[in-house]
Each structure stands twice: as structure tokens, then as C-alpha cells.
Specification:
14 helices, two-stranded antiparallel ribbon, MetI-like fold, 2 domains, mainly alpha
Length: 316
């Protein structure tokens, strides 16, 4: 397994380098220098030339790229000239809050989706199964911001149970944890979207496992239905969901962008959104890089988790 992990990590480095190169080229093609974003659109040509020379943007693009890679090795993601802070410092401020939002939504979605999928499989073609399927398809086809707006209208404006957005006092991950009422709507919005896909995969996998001989044997031995489902079926039926969880890790990062903007939640997604408007390319590059890293790590974690859960899977 160690050799497999090493090979996957080498592949991951190549993928991340490729994504970095493409993103760097696209951003520099759209805007070779952030000088106008920093100095303003009315900046003189002489001022722009002087700024480019001072910050190294007068060098050839290939030289700038390798200089950027050298900085990445030292965990230096560049500098935000708009916010007058290093990108690493900005990410360090927001990564904990985004991780809490994504992690809480992922855990909540699994708590709901796994039992729901098993229940649908056991009671397949029942009215409850049809109703859950209809709700899941509706949620699956619904954009995250639209679902968030519905929840805001219903639970914040009409029923006044939760606040419309997240207050400015939530500045750390710990404050986010200790103020669950303010984070309830953003977490539930992300979780419901995941429930729609997780439960469908769980239902399909559980239906396949219910037809296997080992389930019939467990029932023939007189085991209770609860023991059959949660002691024997759950582990095997969860394998597709484990893969889906690994693949959903970068998706949560993208989902956070809209949810954090909608609920005014200070995290990496809101930072990226503001960077788009400010043409803050170093933040944009770093965000894309983080997404690429999460994608390859999510795939690796999913493969390792499946090999751990199912001894029949060999990682060679």
C-alpha cells in the first residue's frame, strides 16, 4: 500500500502543477499585470511600467511562473495588493471557518442520507420511498443559492427562527462552533444538497446488497432486522458513498463560494468572490490551487477508505 500511496502522491503533484500552469497562463492572458487593478484605470503608462518593474511583472511569463512555483514551495502564495496582506495570511484567517462549514454540512448529510437510503431500500416502491425520491430529485436539481434563498425566506423572514446571515462577530472557527444558531441555515443548505445525492447512491447500493446470499443467511439465522441492516449490510452498502464523499470534498469548496456570499459568512469562498471583483489574481490562483489539491487528496482518501472498509480491494 505504501508504494501505491507514493505513486498516487507523485501523480497528484503532476496534476497540481498542470492545474497551476493552466490557471497561471489563463489569468496572465486575461490580465498580464494587476497594475491597473492596484493603481486604478486612470494610471499613467509610466506609473504602470514603474509598478511592473518594481514587482517583477516586466519579466517574461515563463520566468514569472517558475518564480511563482519557487514561492509555492516555501508556502508563499503571493501578496494581495488590494487587501495589503499576504495570501497565506488571508487563507490562514478563513480556512478554519470554511472547513467547519464544509465539515459540519458533510457530517450532517451523512447522518441523514445513510439511514434514509437504507430505509428507502428496505421499503422500496412504498409511498415513503416515492416521496423521498421526489424530494431528493428536487433538491439535487436545485442550485445551492436558490435553496438558501428559500430557507432564508421561510425560517429567517417568515418564522424568524434563525438570523438572515452570519454576524460580523463570527471571525474564528471556534466562534462559528459556539454560535450554532447563526450557522444553522448555511450548514443545512449545504447538507440538504449532499443528502440528495448520498441517499440515492446509498439506496441503490443497499438494494443490491439486500439481494445477496449473506443477507438471506443472516435472516435465516434469526438475526433481528436491525442487526442484519447495520451489522452486515451497512459496511458493504456504504462503499459507493465513501467514494462519493471523497469526490465531494472539492465540490464543498465550490459550494461554499455561493453559500458564504449568500449568508455573508467570512470564509475562503467569500474571499474568492471578492477577489473576482477586485481582480486579485494571487488569491484566485491560490483558491484554484487549493481546489486542485483537495480534488487529488479526496480521490486518494476515498481509495484508501474503500481498501480499509473492503478487504477484497487491493491497492497495487
Amino acid at each position: 500500500m505504501l508504494g501505491y500511496i507514493v505513486r498516487r502522491l507523485i501523480t497528484a503533484v503532476i496534476v497540481v502543477l498542470g492545474v497551476t500552469a493552466v490557471s497561471f497562463a489563463i489569468l496572465h492572458f486575461l490580465s498580464p499585470t494587476p497594475a491597473y487593478a492596484v493603481l486604478g484605470t486612470k494610471a499613467t503608462h509610466a506609473a504602470v511600467v514603474s509598478w511592473n518593474k518594481q514587482h517583477g511583472y516586466d519579466r517574461p511569463e515563463i520566468v514569472q511562473f517558475f518564480s511563482y512555483l519557487g514561492n509555492l514551495v516555501q508556502l508563499n502564495f503571493g501578496y494581495s495588493y488590494k487587501l495589503n496582506q499576504s495570501v497565506a495570511a488571508l487563507f490562514n484567517e478563513d480556512v478554519g471557518r470554511s472547513a467547519y462549514l464544509s465539515g459540519a454540512a458533510l457530517v450532517l448529510s451523512l447522518i441523514i442520507a445513510v439511514p434514509l437510503g437504507i430505509a428507502q431500500a428496505v421499503k422500496r416502491n412504498s409511498p415513503g420511498d416515492y416521496a423521498a425520491t421526489a424530494i431528493n430529485f428536487t433538491l439535487y436539481s436545485m442550485p445551492s443559492f436558490f435553496l438558501g434563498l428559500i430557507l432564508i425566506q421561510l425560517f429567517a423572514l417568515d418564522l424568524n427562527i434563525f438570523p438572515v446571515g452570519v454576524g460580523d462577530n463570527i471571525t474564528t472557527a471556534w466562534q462559528a462552533i459556539t454560535h450554532p444558531r447563526q450557522l444553522c441555515l448555511p450548514i443545512v443548505t449545504l447538507a440538504l444538497l449532499n443528502v440528495a445525492s448520498f441517499s440515492r447512491y446509498m439506496r441503490s447500493s443497499a438494494l443490491d446488497e439486500l439481494a445477496q446470499d449473506y443477507i438471506r443467511l443472516a435472516r435465516a439465522k434469526g438475526l433481528s432486522e436491525r442487526a442484519v441492516l447495520f451489522r452486515h449490510l451497512l459496511r458493504n452498502a456504504s462503499l459507493p458513498v465513501i467514494t462519493l464523499v471523497g469526490l465531494s470534498i472539492p465540490t464543498l469548496l465550490a459550494g461554499n463560494l455561493l453559500i458564504e456570499y449568500l449568508f455573508n459568512y467570512s470564509g475562503l469562498g467569500l474571499l474568492f468572490y471578492n477577489a473576482l471583483g477586485n481582480e486579485d489574481y494571487n488569491i484566485l490562483l491560490a483558491y484554484v490551487l487549493v481546489g486542485a489539491i483537495l480534488t487529488v487528496l479526496g480521490n486518494l482518501i476515498a481509495d484508501l477508505a474503500i481498501a480499509t472498509a473492503d478487504p477484497r480491494v487491493r491497492l497495487d
